[in-house]
Amino acid sequence: MAEVKRQTQRRRRSTHESFLRYRSFLFLKIATVAGLAMSAAYFFQDARPRPSGGSPLGYFLGTLGAMLIVWLALLGWRKRAVSDSYYSLKAWVSAHVYLGLSLIVIATLHTGFQFGWNVHTLAYALMLLVIASGAVGVWAYVVLPNALSENRGETTRKQMLADIASLDEMIQEAAQPFPRDTAAIVRLSLETTEIGGGFWRRLSGRYPDCPTTLALRQLEPLGHAVSRDQAKALGEVQGLLERKVAALALARRQIHITALLEVWLFVHVPATFALLAALTAHIASVFLYW
Amino acid sequence: MAQAITLRLITRQAGGGEIIRTRHIEGAEAMIGRAPDCDVYLPDLAVDRQHAMLRVTAENRVTIESLTGQPFTADGKSTLKVDLDVLRAPVVTFGSYDLALSEGGEGDIAVTVKRREGDHAPTVGVFSLKAAMFSRRRMAWTLGLAIVALCLILPLAGAGLLKHSRIHPDQQWSSGPLSKAHQFLEKDCQACHQQAFVSVRDEACLACHKTTATPEATLRLNASLKARGSPFIPRLIDDHAVHDRLARGTPLPPSLGGKATALIGRAFNHPNDRCASCHLEHTKPAGPIAEADRPQRPTLVITNDCATCHAKLKMRLGDTTLIDTPDWGHHPAFRPTVTLAAGPHPQFERIALTARPQERSGLIFSHRQHLDPGGGVARMSLQLGAAKGYGGALACASCHHPKPGGAQWAPIQMARDCGACHSLAFASGGGEGRLLPHGDVGKVMETLQAYYGGRSVSTPPAAPAQTGRRLPGDFRPQGVAPRAPSGGAASGVFRAAFSPGGACYGCHTISWGGDGPMGVEVAPVHLAARFMPRGAFDHSVPAHGGQTLGGAACNDCHKASASDHAADVMLPDIGKCASCHGQPKAKVAAAGSAECTECHSYHHPGKATPNGQDRLFEAIFGGTAGPARGMPGA
User: Does residue A217 fall inside a structural domain?
Assistant: First the structure.
């Protein structure tokens, strides 16, 4: 029995190799060697009056960095192109991560540690922003998918929505005997509850003024002040609202984790385009005013 | 009888399609509400349980009135009571239900009840952050295009169209500040970057820095640059050599990487023999820097040092007259420019010191005799006394006087520097001596004739007998009576002066068969102002000293007390320079640099290194180089 379990584990390990561990950290090794080699070249060069993008090594690092940036940006195209050739997507992502990180060394050495309020430093800053957001993305992709599947368990996202929708229908029906004021409280939940909400709610996962919770709270004191058949309806609605609160919480946790998983891309992708534009301006301006 | 009401309920099915149910309401009224017993039953929490009453008031006219004070919507307007013409097919809305009124088929009024589709139920898309955010793609393009527009297109347009405007968007392309010298060009990128995709060319630099043809042109250049805001007078330069020869004379760098860099640079039209290859701008770390940190002038980076080209120049430039100088240790011997022949058209030649050049100055002079502490000169100096600046054996400074600044020596002047002993007096009158004019034989005769009455020479004076030097005022013209107005007197004095023992004879070479008065011809004299006019030797440098400056004594370099002839060139050998220059400080206190530019100027080939630093509208390159004497190509 133990033997079988061990075999299963081994198989899982061999088939599920993350992009970080791809081919025993092949691209991490390449990036490290490249970074060390460039640093050594930087410190042993004889650049006068001081190292800069205009020295021979500076031009080399700049060319290498620009080519890397363009290639890294091509991941956006590669991931859409369903293909068996051009190496696996996993290989691309692995290289994208490690070579992208090596850009910190390459581009910083290219600057010769000279920064200012100009288009050149703009390109450098945007590159760092892209890399930083990408690092967040790596963290998210390593940590969050587990949390995501743990949260939803066996429930699909469609089921979560269907649960909430059917609860809404049941609440609507159960609340029919309510007079206008009480009905208005129930309508709060039915009509104004947002499952996801805005950016900050999704990112924080906090919904302090959720209308469904609010409705539940407002219905509480009414228990004594209604007729008998209304009291029955009230109890029913309260029960349903509580179920809706739970269903919302599950969906919102899913949304929160998804937001953490996706938020970096909203920086990474636009910043990449901005970087490509700034890089173009940087290179063009350098040679326009050579 | 009032019209009846026909109620038509339309229910949408989940799988598509509609179910229509029809019901007749007798009477002219119909209750609208959420309560199940209402005539028009609308199970929507937004509708009150008994919300409103619909009444038929006339032919095809109805009123709908809210019973609870809660409004409803009629034809898009929120209201509590409305009177409607059925023929106009009005629509009344309660909650999510639309009640469409129309003429019924049998003369009654039809009310069609239809539930509006609510907001679309959320799809799984709601789980993605995309549901709450801007479109990544749109944001990406917006940012990208904005940066291209602001950082590339705007500066380009600014460089072209808005050149004269106050804003200069192309300044964002500057990688660092300019030096103080060029700061006034900071908003005018194209002053230097004249052609797109072409590295800064020498023409851009020479527009301000090329040596002007005339002093007037220099003044005009200075005025125009001052008007543009330059605080400094530009340093004017000459080509180090004709560009083609310079290119041929320059070897590729010795290292493989250097060769590759140079060749790639050439291939990309970025050669390293441009002004901007050595004089770099925008090199200071960019960003806000204190004004004091701004470098004074462009950073100098020497791409090729002197020895790179001058080590084996003859190999690459066979016709050069320059001697290869691989390094300071192999510097060729000094080749002073010596006078071959004085006269109105003096001839000069550069002859190596090792070949013992002879300076044909035309004078007869012995430094040894004048400096001998036990000789007649010293005795005479004693007689003159300290009050007159003498008083003992002569020193160099007894006769040689520095120019203002002390870098060089003023030319020897006979009256000032020799006259204390070598009197030119020929007569005394009224207590004051009469002096022969110096430098012009004709004028000597004229002076004598004017003094003695201008008569012709009849009796030559007796041969002059005096051989010793005369003190000033010690007037004893030989064989001539004082103030004797005789016709032969002038000639006699004249002849005596140019004869052995005469005032002129000891120092000048005199011949008697020439075109001068009485056939007297004095050999032309040319005193060297500088033997090495291309050097920048500065006697005022403390270590170079001179007697007055506490440094080296004159005799350390110039062996005057051993020189018997005026023709001796008493320059020290370059080894003397090397005893300090190129020595370590630890070994020689007065050690100095052995850089080529210590003496030679790159930008003024054949001239001295310009002294002084940046000048705020002072003279340009004034005073350091002596008068150029017969320099080839000068």
Answer: yes
